[in-house]
Structure formats: structure tokens, C-alpha cells
Write a structure and sequence with these properties.
Asp/Orn_carbamoylTrfase, Rossmann fold, 12 helices, 5-stranded parallel β-sheet, arginine biosynthesis, alpha/beta, 35% helix, Asp_carbamoyltransf_Asp/Orn-bd, transferase, amino-acid biosynthesis, binds phosphoric acid mono(formamide)ester
């Protein structure tokens, strides 16, 4: 595997899940693969889980790891070609990327949507430059539009906890004070469409996700109706994807607190498990009572980030 961006990059999902459970049984069994190999993890944005779980995954595989916080200690990077570089940006990404590539065997990059241009964000301008110019395999650690390591961990968690062969999984928008990217819901939708689940998306009008991610999912604007009989509730905020009104891209259109997942919402489900990728704003996205309930999977879900990252790095090492 040279690029990990979409669910299709993993090939057959059942095989990938079996590999994840094999890794989980003994996460150090593939140490020989990473000997004298280096993973470079590049962060343009903050992280707790991705940073720690991916480092741990690389160490599980016997790799050396370098972590670079681009905004803390590196030269400020220009990303646009043709710009006269007379501002505070000292280095161009077009030199920085091949230089970074020369120090490692595999590169992970986190670079969020900037909301400056929907076109640039949805074309994955930054990540595609790493793919093109680094000369190394690249995996997405949350880009402008997708967060595949998270979605793979979410799928592993659903597989572990499901009580029926084909559970009902609901992705629900929930309120948040700031404008958040669509990467997590986009990826979650993409992965759930590929998995064997009954998948429903619910959100207020105006928050329609890009059709390339919605796929065949059922979209239900009545949140309570969507929750009825659900086995898993996956809550997440996202800003306006700009599908119906491009001029609203990246805007917060609603902070309607009636969408906060509380016990009344969970009561209409099939004793559903609650999921969220974290970090989460308590009593905006979900109440204290729901996130602290025995049905909350937020901690095992985060723990599975180590497993999803180990499988992805293992696949990349095997293909070097
Ligand atoms: N879920 C997730 O990616 O967490 P971080 O932003 O802390 O890495």
C-alpha cells in the first residue's frame, strides 16, 4: 500500500478486520518488519490520539519514529506556487516535502481543512503534494476531507461490540461552538457504506455531506426518528459542507442544543452504544450522563486507534 486515504485502499474489509484482530492478539508479532525503518509523522494541526497511537503503532512494528510539529519549531511554510516569498514564510513546501521524504521510509500527515477554499480543501491540495513530491508512501492522519485511521478504528470497535450481524448505525450531527471540518463524518460515512451495516445519517438541513461520501446512506432530518432502534450512535459536529449553498462552506449554521445526545435520545434506541472520535465538548455534543454510561465506547474506540494504525503501517512496510 503506497497511500492510505480511503476505505478502498485497504482492499477487502473482512480481511482487514481479521488482520486487525490478529494484531490485537499480539501487537508486537511483526517487529521484524520495521527494523531500521523510520516513520515521519508531520502535524500541521494539534492532536492527542493520532499523535500517540500512531507513534505507538510504529513502535509496535519496531520502527524508529520522528514527529514534526510544523507550527512549532519548523520554518513557516509557503504552500502556493508562484508566490513572491517576501512574507514571514521562509520555506516552500515544494522543497520541504522531498527533504522530509529523504529522512524516512513512510510519511504520515495531518493537515486540516482551512475553509479558505472548498475547491482546495476537497482537492486535498496539501496531502496530494506529499504524495507527489515525497517519493515515499503517505498515510492520512486526518486531512481536509478524510480521517481514515479514525474510521478504521471505529469499524473495528463496531465489529467488536455488535450484537446482530447487520447493526443499525446512525451518524448524528450535534452542536459545537466552533466551525469543525467534515473529515470525520465524511470518512465515517465512506467506511460505513463499505461495511455490512444499516447506515443512517441525521443532521439539520444545510449540513448535507458531499454525495461522494453519503453514497447509499439513508438521510433522515428528524433526529429522533433516525435514532429509533439504533444499535450504535456516532455523534459528531461538522460545519456546513457547502453542498447545497457553496457560499456557506465552513460556516456554523446552527447551534441547536436539541441535537445534543442525551438520555432521552438514547431511550428510543435499541440500547445503543454511544461513539465519538474525541476530543468531545461535553454537554454540547453529548451529556455527561451518556458519555459516562456503560454504553459509551469512546475509550475502547480511542484505544483501537493503535490497532488501526498498526495494520496500516504494517501494510505499508510489507509493500516497501
Ligand atoms: N480522534 C482524533 O483524531 O483525535 P486527535 O485529534 O486528538 O488526534
Amino acid at each position: 500500500m503506497r497511500v492510505f486515504q480511503n476505505v478502498q485502499d485497504l482492499g477487502d474489509l473482512k480481511t482487514a478486520l481479521a488482520e486487525a484482530f490478529e494484531v490485537k492478539k499480539d501487537r508486537f508479532q511483526f517487529q521484524h518488519l520495521g527494523k531500521n525503518k523510520t516513520a515521519l509523522l508531520i502535524f500541521f494541526n494539534n492532536s492527542l490520539r493520532t499523535r500517540l497511537s500512531t507513534q505507538k503503532a510504529a513502535m509496535n512494528l519496531g520502527m524508529n519514529v520522528i514527529v514534526l510539529d510544523v507550527n512549532q519549531g519548523a520554518w513557516k511554510l509557503e504552500t502556493e506556487r508562484g508566490v513572491i516569498m517576501d512574507s514571514d514564510k521562509s520555506e516552500h513546501l515544494l522543497e520541504a516535502i522531498p527533504v522530509m521524504g529523504s529522512y524516512c521510509d513512510i510519511i504520515g500527515v495531518r493537515s486540516f481543512a482551512t475553509f479558505e477554499s472548498r475547491k482546495d480543501d476537497y482537492e486535498e491540495k496539501i496531502l496530494n503534494q506529499f504524495i507527489k513530491y515525497s517519493g515515499k508512501p503517505v498515510f492520512f492522519m486526518e486531512s481536509a476531507t478524510v480521517h481514515p485511521l479514525q474510521s478504521f478504528a471505529d469499524l473495528i470497535t463496531i465489529e467488536e461490540y455488535k450484537k446482530t450481524a447487520r447493526p443499525k448505525v446512525v451518524l448524528s450531527w450535534a452542536p459545537h461552538p466552533k466551525a469543525l471540518p467534515q473529515a470525520v463524518p465524511n470518512s465515517f460515512a465512506q467506511w460505513m457504506n463499505a461495511a455490512d451495516v444499516d447506515f443512517v445519517i441525521t443532521h439539520p438541513e444545510g449540513y448535507e455531506l458531499d454525495p461522494m461520501f453519503v453514497g447509499d446512506a439513508k438521510v433522515e432530518y428528524d433526529q429522533m426518528k433516525a435514532f429509533e432502534g439504533a444499535d450504535f450512535i456516532y455523534a459528531k459536529n461538522w460545519s456546513c459542507p457547502g453542498v447545497t449553498r457553496p457560499e456557506d462552506y465552513g460556516k456554523v449554521l446552527s447551534k441547536d442544543m436539541s441535537w445534543t445526545v442525551d438520555e432521552a435520545h438514547m431511550a428510543v434506541t435499541n440500547n445503543a452504544y454511544f461513539m465519538h472520535c474525541l476530543p468531545v465538548r461535553r454537554n454540547m455534543i453529548v451529556t455527561d450522563d451518556v458519555i459516562e454510561s456503560p454504553q459509551s465506547l469512546v475509550i475502547p474506540e480511542a484505544a483501537n486507534r493503535e490497532i488501526s494504525a498498526t495494520v496500516v503501517l504494517k501494510r505499508m512496510l510489507e509493500a516497501l
